[in-house]
Amino acid sequence: MPADPASPRAVPPSTSAASPRAVRARACADQASPRPAIDRSAGPVRHPGPGRRAFLRAGAGSALGAVALPGLTACGSSGGGVGPDGKVTVELWHGQTDTLKQAIEALVGEFNRTHPAIHVDAGGGATADVMLQKVTAALASGSYPDIAYVFGSDIASIARSPRVLDLTSALRAPGPVPWNDYWPSLREAVTINGRVRAAPALVDSLAVICNTRLFQRAGLALPQPGWSWAEFVDTAHRLTDPSKGVFGTGWPGVGDEDTTWRLWPMVWDLGGEIIAPDGKSIGFAEQGPRALETVASLATGDSVYVDPKPGSAQMYQVFLSGRMGMVLGGPWSLPDIIAAKTDYTVVPLPSYSGRPVTISGPDTWTVFDNGTARSAAAVAFVRWLNAPEQDVTWDIGAGSLPLSTQSARRPEWLDHSARTVGLPAFTKALESARVRPVHPAYPAISQAVGEAVVTVLLGRSTPERVMRDCAEKADAALLIPR
User: Residues annotated as region Disordered (predicted)?
Assistant: First the structure.
């Protein structure tokens, strides 16, 4: 339930600048907001052009041999997708727009140049926010792409189709990125029932972005790693200045996944899980009320800006305008903050235990079975794309983080990270990041939790009462046969 825009907790921003990039955590496509492209011309993000040495090179007569990957099988015809000239065409629905579209298409061009027996066609598909619906319809019609950019929260639904390739052998085989070099949260995000059902495409993490000027004005020292949620709440209250329209912090107030995912690090830190080990009930019935009590404490004294619109654009605009002391955000936020010339720093999320914990929202490259030749070529492209040399180019262009520890050690990334305040903190957070469960009931759980958070933010009920209602709805969703 969105906040009343007239409420003191939800005031419209005072500027009309372009909306910042929305948080990318999504439970399902009808809850999601797009990952909008942003103008990075004023920020530190650079876009290395094509021309870099590809990890895999193949001559016209040997490229197909190079993509005969171990353990990869497909149900279609082995000759499907091979043209009269012997070239295999792979259809990629990358889902990106503007700057991100330019970044992925530059990489596609480099792959096509260095792999003459394969042509990746990146011209079709849909934007990422409607990819689930588009792919679902395509699978039903029998005419679907070879690769699609699918949100991590949607992979459990998509992977139920027999047309989704099992990539376990392909990604765990020796190759450009050893399986264990991917961050643990990424490995978990693409694994269902012990099988790898997609390739990692993008990863981020959540941390606290602080307006250093507002901290100085309030006479407060900047937070340090290991700080507590109690300190976060106290700092938010101290930063709040109603006479100047300054809020201590903000929280999305729509009740969607953007509202929900910020609560999960609290739950995990308290020892809870989103789904109980038996899979029949939620795993945070005891921890949920305490996490919600922290949210309720923020709402006391109107120190939290409750954003009444999807996408969190207004909340981030309040921060960019210099009227919010702290905001939970990710690396996607930094170019807009730098362009706005906001003095800032980034610190890890607070915790109850003193241990670092955060959440990551990975997205995937999901590969579909269009016959042996096209499937092998599609997997070859994904493996090439995730190799550290290409991954770093994509990460810098997409405003995201390295997919693997190998990529994080690349000189290009280290240089980019050193020149971008806060980026090392987001990368470091990947070491302790967790992901939401890959489970078809998660969207229903997320909705129930989102409604509970908004109810508490607006002071309409107690944490204990809303948690009982939340548990009843979420447990019911888990009992539905799937």
Answer: 1-53
